[in-house]
């Protein structure tokens, strides 16, 4: 009977129709164990060939249906028909339900408002970008769902990104080799979003901007400076800033991220008695100075509000403002002299050496150093597991 009905032909067609798509979805979504595999190259080439493999599988099934299906017993016909129906169900999971592009869509409407017409709560955390005198704020909760917003700030293109699995915000230039690119969300590897540029089809890690696989492998997207702060703190420095408004098409998706921007996983876990325990999803503040990375436990930094430190022979200050959400990092060398900082009784930032008063933009507003400015260092709030993975040689500040 087997020689008459050729069952291996049928099952080969089913395998090619289903398995590549299932493996592809498994590797690019956070299923148990999938993100720990070093399989981005496999996922990349599988995506490029999955439809071709499906076509071959479908062709085998059509050939089988024409030549051999009628020769099956009634029971085998029903079994094969049911298997084929399950294949269609699997397409829904692999190509719709667990496809990053459909799960996390870009805004259909990108609308900004000034302070007077803004409807975003002032205590929400934003990613702020300034270019050519123009400031824009992108609320974290909206970014967390969309993962990326492709925009212009001060007539310059920007790619504003955020990955909730890693708690990583990054801003990049979408210009590659002189041409602006459009990016799509592919999925995730090592719990970090993977994006693909339209022209070269290269896959880029959102957390580092490095091209992980594809034509431009090994190259980096140009990172642009940004600040993460409450909207209130941002507006205090940039009162004319434009603020991204919520897209009403995604209200429920935004609600699903309620309090994401202010509550740690450890705070929500009642089984953990020692809240200072360093966990995979503990927040850290990460900085990079001349290639050397260092992480600061957010809870310890929160208790101190500021830390004077040295990294790679550079004196630095890392600090959190009184709102407990806005953070900064500065190079504290001014005119060849290292400054050390405290908070005075009024909560103002002052240096020990001259007692000058500084604002949170790094400008000395009073005292002997009035008019001087600290050099900003890009800082990142990130989950510990992510920072450690993408910066395996990182230092870690201990109290």
From TrEMBL:
Keywords linked to the UniProt accession: Membrane, Transmembrane, Transmembrane helix
Ranges annotated as spanning the membrane: 49-66, 78-98
Highest taxon, organism lineage: Bacteria
Protein name as annotated: DUF3179 domain-containing protein
Originating organism: Mucilaginibacter mallensis
Organismal lineage: Bacteria, Pseudomonadati, Bacteroidota, Sphingobacteriia, Sphingobacteriales
